[in-house]
Design brief:
- The protein is of the alpha/beta class and 439 residues long.
- Helices cover 44% and strands 16% of the residues.
- The protein is built from 17 helices and 14 strands.
- The strands form 3 sheets. A 6-stranded parallel β-sheet has the order 1-11-10-9-12-13, sandwiched between helices. Strands 6-5-4-7-8 form a 5-stranded parallel β-sheet, sandwiched between helices. It has a 3-stranded antiparallel β-sheet with strand order 2-3-14, with no helix packed on it.
- Helix 5 crosses helix 7 and helix 10 packs across helix 11.
- The relative contact order is 0.14.
């Protein structure tokens, strides 16, 4: 049996699964202590600290001359990877850009009857740092992370984008990462990774200028560094292990459901793949299909561990019960593998991304369709959203009032200030009363 099977009839049935999924949080204080030491070291020793950590963990012969990727490397990478892959990357990038353009917000102003002009000014931040994982030994480059993190910032109008990615053993970056950077227009890319790279982006070093916002996925050291640096910089989100929830009725194809669950299970032993089905026969067949397909996967050991620890097939008596369970999960990815997915959309309250129907598996969104694949995990879809253009913008309120406005409302404002014991606030307004200054 690749994963547990349970039933759902009421919210309390979710308690055991919730407790199980919560184990994926990493409470290891030792990791936080190590990351704090790394942040302090990079802030103090700058490039020398980057050099030391990179030699110790990634490339023993690394030299600081290899830190900044030269401009020629981007064009060389585009030529090296082949026209077909370049075309696919460009098409995916176009789809992502088109989707995120719809997220752009405009500055706005309103004029009130009393003459006040109030508004909000939307501006991009000045600089964004992107963390791009190198994959296993640099040989499984996460090009989709480059696209999904960089393009919303570009659409937002951020003038400076800088990326970091851990080097391979020879000190170079995978050509697919370089090609993806070239396609999105990034020319400032540094061969450094883990918590020290995040520290370099936040604090700056001799070579790397600091940024305002850091985005991008990574291991526990990267995630912890981002969490500890909140307040020094903005971040996209605190991301946990990947997860998928599937709501399926009797019309679902069990072969497809098994493939979809395994698409998340192969990520990480901590990934969670959960199917909520309304048919016991489907649950039984799905379990068998998982076993059959698992044996054929290159990452079978990882996927098997994920399913054994955090996978689950849940049988609900009805779609209504299934939706209730799905909302309690608040999963990163949700597939609605039912006969009429659109009928359920109004009832789905919590999900990072919703994939509609039998012909829309999660990898469609991961790589190509356009919506962002950087999504809230660990139940945080209850209160947070996918990475978007807004992550790379900031908003300033605008207030413009006339002397007449102050004369009319000044005493009310002063009274509110004195209620809070702030006499100077009150006098600031009252100093303008009874004068015609500024008219």
């Amino acid at each position: 049996m690749p994963c547990r099977q349970t039933t759902y009839t009421k919210p309390s049935d979710f308690d055991e699964l919730k407790a199980c999924l919560a184990k994926r949080e990493n409470p290891d204080q030792a990791v936080e202590d190590r990351v704090k030491a790394i942040l302090t070291d990079v802030r103090s020793r700058k490039d020398e600290a980057l050099l030391e950590y990179t030699r110790r963990f990634d490339c023993p012969e690394f030299d600081l001359s290899q830190l900044a990727v030269p401009p020629s490397a981007f064009e060389e990478a585009l030529n090296a990877i082949g026209d077909e892959e370049v075309a696919i990357l460009r098409e995916a990038a176009d789809n992502i850009i088109d989707f995120h353009r719809s997220q752009l917000e405009k500055s706005w102003f309103v004029t009130r009857d009393d003459g006040a002009v109030l508004g909000q000014i939307v501006r991009p931040v000045d600089a964004v740092g992107l963390y791009v994982p190198g994959g296993i030994g640099g040989e499984t480059p996460l090009v989709s992370s480059m696209l999904m993190n960089a393009l919303p910032a570009i659409v937002a109008g951020v003038p400076r984008l800088v990326a970091v990615s851990p080097p391979r053993k020879d000190g170079t970056l995978n050509p697919y990462i370089l090609a993806a950077a070239a396609i999105v227009g990034i020319t400032e890319l540094y061969a450094t990774g883990s918590a020290w790279a995040v520290a370099a982006l936040a604090y700056g070093t001799d070579t790397i200028k600091p940024v305002d916002v850091i985005a991008g996925p990574g291991n526990i050291y990267v995630t912890t560094a981002k969490r500890l640096l909140v307040g020094t910089v903005g971040i996209d989100m605190i991301a946990g292990p990947s997860e998928i929830a599937i709501l399926a009725d009797e019309t679902a194809n069990p072969d497809w459901l098994a493939a979809d669950m395994l698409s998340q299970a192969e990520h990480d032993p901590l990934a969670a793949s959960i199917a909520v089905v309304t048919d016991q026969a489907l649950a039984t067949t799905l379990a068998q299909k998982l076993k059959e397909q698992l044996e054929q996967l290159p990452r079978a050991e990882i996927a098997a561990q994920s399913l054994a620890d955090y996978g689950q097939i849940i049988v609900a008596d009805s779609l209504e019960q299934g939706v209730e369970a799905i909302n309690l999960l608040a999963a990163e990815h949700l597939e609605l593998c039912v006969s009429d997915p659109w009928a359920l959309v109004p009832k789905i309250r919590h999900a990072g991304a919703i994939f509609m129907g039998h012909a829309c598996p999660e990898p469609v969104g991961d790589y190509f369709a356009g919506p962002n694949h950087v999504l809230p995990t660990m139940g945080t879809a209850r209160f947070s959203s996918a990475l978007s253009v807004q992550n790379f913008c900031k908003k300033s309120s605008l207030v413009s009032t006339s002397p007449a406005y102050v004369q009319k409302h000044g005493q009310k404002i002063a009274r509110l200030a004195r209620l809070e014991g702030l006499e100077a606030h009150a006098r600031s307004v009252e100093s303008r009363l009874g004068t015609n200054q500024g008219e």
